[in-house]
Amino acid sequence: MAKIYVASSWRNKNQPIVVNTLRIAGHEVYDFRNPTDGDKGFHWSEIDEYWEKWTPEQYRENLKHPVAEKGFKSDMDAMKWAEVFVGVMPFGRSASLEMGWAVGHGKTTILLLSDGEPELMVKMLDYICCTTPELINAVNNLKTGPAIDPVVVAFEKTMQYKLNKNKFKECEIMNPDGRGRKWDNCEVEWLFNRMVEETEELLESIELPASAVEIRNECADVGNFAMMIYDKFLSADACSDARLGGANERNRAVAR
Predict the structure, then answer these.
(1) How many domains does the chain have?
(2) Beta partners for 111?
(3) Residue 130: which domain range?
(4) Is the N or the C terminus of the chain less surrounded, counting Cβ atoms within 10 Å?
(5) 241 and 136 both lie in a single domain
(6) Residue 178, domain member (yes or no)
(7) CB-CB neighbours of 123 under 10 Å
C-alpha cells in the first residue's frame, strides 16, 4: 500500500476516477477536492467571487488570506506525507509545481498522459503511463517505504557534485591514470586518514567562519570518504579483508 498525492486540475474530469481507482486498489490517497470529511477543498471564490479579475498585486496580497493559508497548508502537509506523486494530465501551474517539488524531494513520480501538446521535461519523472490500468499496475509494483528526507537528497547531490569536481585531480593513489575514481584499490586506512583530514578542514571552515556553501561542500568531502569506506564493506566476503589495519592514535581519537 502506497501513500499517494494526486496532482491534477479542478477541471480534469478524470481526477476523481483515478483517486477512486487507486483507493479500490488499496492505496491511501490524498484528494485535494476532498481533503477531509466535509472539506470540499480550497477555492479562490471563498476569498473573492471576482478572483478571476484580480490584478497581480491583488493576487499576491490574497496569497496571505487565511483561507489561502489553510488550503496551502493542507496540500503541503499531504505532499510531505506522500511517498508517491501521481500527476493526472491535463493540469496547470499548481500541479506542475507540485510534481517538480516531488522530483526535487526524492519522491516517486508517475505521470498519466492525456491528449495535448508534448512536454519534454516530463522525462524527469520516474514513470510515464498512457492508461489508468497501466498507472495502477505501476503503483502496485512499487516498493514503497519511508520518504527520503529532503536533507538527504540535498546532501547526496552535493556529494556527487564534489565527486565530479575532484575526479580529475592528480592523485597517485586514487587517480593514477588521470581518468577519475577510483577508490577500489585504496586501502581502508588511507581512506580513513583522508576522511580525518577532510574533517579537520570542515572544522576550520566552521571556525573561520566560511560561507554556507563552502561548509556544505566540506561536509560533502567528509561524506564522500565515509561513503568510499562504506562501499568497501558492502560485500560480506570483503569485510574480513577491508578491516582498518592500524590508523594512528590521532585518527583514532578523532574517530571517537
Answers:
(1) 2
(2) 87, 128
(3) 3-140
(4) C
(5) no
(6) yes
(7) 7
Strand order in the sheet with 108-112: 28-30, 3-7, 84-88, 108-112, 127-129
Q: What is the residue whose three cell numbers read 496569497?
A: 63
Residue range 72-82: average pLDDT? 91
pLDDT at 237 over 60: no
The percent of residues in the chain predicted with pLDDT above 70, rounded, is: 83
Cell of 44: 479562490
CA distance 169 to 224: 15
C-beta of residue 130 within 8 angstroms of C-beta of residue 141:
no
What's the pLDDT score for residue 35? Answer: 80
User: Is the model more confident about 180 or about 24?
Assistant: 24
Which residues are CB-neighbours of 120 under 8 A, at least 6 positions away?
A: none
The residue out of 111, 140, 169 marking a domain boundary is 140
Instruction: With respect to residue 76, please indicate whether it lies within any of the assigned structural domains.
Output: yes
Same-domain check for residues 136 and 171? no
Under 8 Å between Cβ of 214 and 204: no
